[in-house]
Amino acid sequence: MTCDRLVCANCAGPVSEGRCPVCRASRERLQQQEGVFAGLTPATLIALLVALVAVAVLAHGFAG
Fold first, then answer.
1. CA atoms 44, 50, 51, 52: torsion sign
2. What is the C-alpha to C-alpha distance for residues 38 and 10, in angstroms, rounded to an integer?
3. What is the dihedral of CA 32, 35, 36, 41, to 10 degrees?
4. Dihedral of CA 64/51/1/28: which sign?
5. For residues 19 and 7, what is the distance between their CA atoms, to the nearest angstrom?
């Protein structure tokens, strides 16, 4: 999850701007929770999945 579209309940501003201490703390917490695939878009994840399936099909074809 990214903080691009989150709105702070404390100051009603975008969390990504960090206007108040609550925004800054939330933004920092989200940045710490990001994993390996956190920055990838859904389209990129779908492309990776399609590539993985294609490799699996090719490997199965060569093994048989």
1. positive
2. 26
3. -100
4. positive
5. 11
pLDDT of residue 63: 78
Structure tokens at 15: 């969390």
3-class state of residue 1 by DSSP: coil
Q: What is the pLDDT of residue 43?
A: 92
pLDDT single digits (tens) 34-57: 777 777 788 998 999 999 999 999
Specify whether the CB–CB gap between 14 and 6 falls below 8 A: yes
Beta carbons of 16 and 26 less than 8 angstroms apart: no
Q: Which residues contact 40 (CB under 8 A, 6 or more apart)?
A: 48
